[in-house]
Amino acid sequence: MRVLCLNGPNLNRLGKREKDAYGTFTLAELESELQNFSSDNAIDLTCKQSNREGELIDWIHQADDDGLNGIVLNAGAYTHTSIAIRDAIASVQVPVIEVHISNIHKREEFRHHSYIAPVAAGQIAGFGKEVYQIALYALLLRRQKG
């Protein structure tokens, strides 16, 4: 099983920004844990991060062209603003699971709306960094069910 984990704007600042909302772990630490989980579960995982909307869109398109089995996407603030990322997800066959470290529905009202949720296979929010492993597990279950 081949999965792409995409992290959007400001997630490269994990461990340095808003620790009460995002915790103290870094993106590198998160990716290392995800690689360990993936290795234990026969998942070939590639992790990427960008602060640029167009680059995230290109990676979503490429994942579909490459026949990947899933995308775990934390689009950061683009979740609430990017119709372009929403349209990219709608244009591909690969299932996308939207994740958020914090519970976006308990935060500022502008974070309550997701352009991604209506076109994603699912949304997982509020469980800290574990949202990524939960999403990978969900992709495993989807694959088992066919």
Question: What does the model show?
Answer:
The protein has a single domain (2-145), classed as Rossmann fold. It has helices at 19-22, 27-40, 53-65, 83-90, 130-145, and strands at 2-7, 44-49, 70-74, 96-100, 122-125. It is built from five helices and five strands, in the order βααβαβαββα. It starts with a strand and ends with a helix. It is globular, with a radius of gyration of 14 Å. With 146 residues, the protein is of the alpha/beta class. The mean pLDDT is 94.
Give the number of helices. 5
Helix content: 25-40%
Query: Which shape, going by the Cα principal axes?
Result: globular
- Biggest sheet record: 5 strands, parallel
What are the segments in which pLDDT stays under 50 over at least 5 consecutive residues? none
What is the domain total for the residues? 1
User: SSE order, as H and E?
Assistant: EHHEHEHEEH
| CATH first level | Alpha Beta
What fold name goes in the CATH topology slot?
A: Rossmann fold
Number of strands: 5
What number is the mean pLDDT?
A: 94
Pathway: Metabolic intermediate biosynthesis; chorismate biosynthesis; chorismate from D-erythrose 4-phosphate and phosphoenolpyruvate: step 3/7
GO biological process, one term: aromatic amino acid family biosynthetic process
Catalytic activity: 3-dehydroquinate = 3-dehydroshikimate + H2O
EC number: 4.2.1.10
